[in-house]
Amino acid sequence: MSSRQLYHTKGDNVIGEWPADPALGWPKGGRGIRRKLCTVASLDGLTLVEQAERIQLLRQEKMQAYYQEKEAEKARKLRRKQEQKRISISQAMDIWLDETQQMLNANTASVYQRSSKLLLQCCGNIRLADFDRQHNIQLLNYLKKVTSPRSSSRQGTIGTATQLKHMRHLQRFFKWALENDYLTKPVKLKKPTAPRRDPETLSIKDLKLLLQELQTMQARATSGREQLHADNLLRAYWMCTQALFRVGAVWSLRLDHIKLSRRIIQIRDNPDLNWTNKAYKQPDKPINDKLYKILKQDLKNRPPEHVYYLDNGRGQPWYRATGEMGRAMKKVQQKVGLPDVKPFHEAFRATMITELLVQGTSPLAVQMLADHSDLSVTLMYLNRRKIDQHAAAQDIPSIG
After folding, report:
1. Which of 364, 361, 358, 363 has its CA nearest to residue 391?
2. d(CA 303, CA 314)
3. Residue 105: exposed, middle, or buried by beta-carbon count in 10 A (0-12, 13-18, 19+)?
4. Which of 89, 211, 334, 390 is least enclosed, having the fewest CB within 10 Å?
5. Distance between CA 339 and CA 176 in Å, rounded?
6. pLDDT given at position 86
7. Whole-angstrom Cα distance, residue 48 to residue 204?
8. 326 vs 61, 250, 319, 337, CA distance in Å?
9. Partner residues linked to 157 by β-bridges
């Protein structure tokens, strides 16, 4: 260390230097910790020997203060880690939920809270570090008995898919706990096996039958309210079948986000409705020829007070929430005797994705159009019962 320059002047100041770790000494070819010791002017009037002694004293004081603070910080970190290891599940979950809620929309955050509550109800407020395999099995059995909030009786329980959803949320919690030093080893939750179920879809014939009924409702409307109701159901039908929109994107869509000249529709978060697009994406979706003609005619006849694609005539959404949209469309489906499928998710979105894939459209193109983050999600929408296997059977190579 003696071969090093222990201090030097820089401008009007005297700078001291010392190793970051006294046990390791100076880093090879590197610099140490540098701190201002005093000003050059403060040494005026002292002899060279007195100046050297003064600088060495200041350097020693600064260096000792630095090492003491470093040790104190190390002790604080150790205490913090020890406290983290003793944290209870509810304490850790409060921190986790507070962090995740800032990155999730209100509906998703609410489901995360529900998952957290179920874990606490099952296992109690134990130490997070004490959660083990036995607690995991206990949780699996507990979820099988949880009453479904949609059940009309106390006997209806949540399905396997819902159980799996809660376990996925809790797996994210335990992963977060490990990454933030609340756990010393990973927790890999054993999850229920969800049965692979193809989505229920409609046929193109079914969709045409539904369209005819919606157009009939529009033509026979006798009041302003009936007219708005029919118009908005038909608008939702076209946007979902021709652009593969999710129900929330249609509900929250503003007219100024429909760019006919560029033939795109901008899906954007709507803070006025507290709505955010899935995964916070902000895509621009293409307008096909059919939808272009419909939108061109529709927008030409809109009064200036309309703000939303599904407007109530006063610059507000016609439907108070997406659930109200689903119930309204479901009534029309039931009226014409269509299969009992979810109107927007299955009747429109899954049906059109299946039709595109079956007719040979590039799966990657369908994925992008459906605004899916992964191709595997797109393929989950495919109703495999609609795939014609006969052509593939004929293509099998002949042997012998």
Report:
1. 358
2. 10
3. middle
4. 390
5. 42
6. 83
7. 96
8. 73, 12, 10, 16
9. 147
